[in-house]
Amino acid sequence: MFTGRAKQLSIYLGEADQHHHQVLYMAILEMLRRAGCGGATATRGIAGFGASSLIHTAGILRLSFDQPVVITVVDRPDRIDRVLGPLREMAPDALVTVQDVEVIQSGVPFREGLPDLTVSQVMRREVATVHPDSPVTELIELLLGKDFTAVPVVDADGRVVGMISDNDLLTRGGINVTISLKKATDLDFVRKLHESLQDPNRKVAEVMTREVITATPDLLLGRAAKLMIDKHVKRLPVVDQNGKLVGILGRLDILNTIATVHLPEWHPGAHPVGAQAIVGDVMTREVATVTENATVEQVFNLLVSSSHKRVVVLDDKRRVSGIIADSDLISRVSRESWPGVMEMLISKVPLGHASVEARRHVQKLRARYAKDLMTHDVVTVREKMPVGSALALSAEKRVKRLPVVDADGELVGIVGRTEMLRALLA
Predict the structure, then answer these.
(1) pTM of the model
(2) Domain 4-103: which topology?
(3) Cβ-contact 273, 109 below 8 angstroms
(4) Do 4-103 and 119-259 come out as alike in CATH topology?
(5) Are strands 235-239 and 245-250 parallel, antiparallel or unpaired?
(6) Hey, which CATH number is domain 279-425, 3.10.450.60, 3.50.50.60, 3.10.580.10, 3.40.50.620?
(7) What is the mean pLDDT of residues 108-115?
(8) In this predicted model, what pLDDT tens digit does every residue of 344-385 receive, in sequence order?
């Protein structure tokens, strides 16, 4: 957790209040958990009255099914501010107060591993699916605008018979542009994907992966996370004893749980507790780097050879000034050149060994130097930061790979979610 200035949020409501057919105080706790709050407590009162002026009591002679409930949250000011909007929508009739507080002791420090939760407590119950006889074009339109690139394939009885992802579409589906580079509001992108299909009438069953790794609702979250790492998958369909789909568990759901339950407020003066793994233990020290004035050709050659699919841009003092991913290249090339550039990125062919046509595509980039290609706002971590803190930051900022810097701000490595999650579960 953290010490210092914070806010205390108090929510007053009735025990019988509902939200979408769910007990309101439980729905609010779930919303706070998913929003990344470090903790929340629901307290049931013994007696009270609210706007209705009705007396509520827990006394035996006047037993009520609508006792007063108070939810209390203490967290960082920015996180409290972020949950107020959703809270007003969920509980428009509740009394909500916020006050400034000073945290002088934060309680239990970050624990290694994952909390003792089951998959059913974290999974998403509303799952986007397709059927084996669905056309691939339907899948493409389904994935665009979503935060995932794979969905379960279910039969008429709701049983999982396969998984289909953007990688399946690239390798067997006949598209030349990966959906991971999608733009939710770019209709031209949808059109380009449809036009690139070699066979628009192809069915999902012809493209999907039939060997599916699944989880059960009662599986411990830590074991599900280890299963993802061991099997190299990012989503696990959750099935009941009959093989019917009941939910989906994504890697981001696990990371959000880490951020929600254990998010520590790490600072450079903090010392790791116990035997916590730190970022420096798991980071890769060999990083693809360029200066701000590096050419597009230099950037491209490093990008296709980088295992982290990132090129870090440094200033003259080796401090991070930007980062370049394949999406940065795609966003700066004409749409007519997307297939050619994508082909080189996927095949990892250096520019010097590419065809004349492929080199011509790269030359159409509207940027000429690394400083024109890079993303400027870079999220970095310190090498002494606990792995749990870095994972929580990765989830909160929606960043998959993080450059690692030392106390002077100089680049010393790069770290990704997979190696951090593996260290956390060790």
Answers:
(1) 0.65
(2) Alpha-Beta Plaits (3.30.70)
(3) yes
(4) no
(5) antiparallel
(6) 3.10.580.10
(7) 52
(8) 666 666 666 666 766 676 666 656 788 988 999 999 999 988
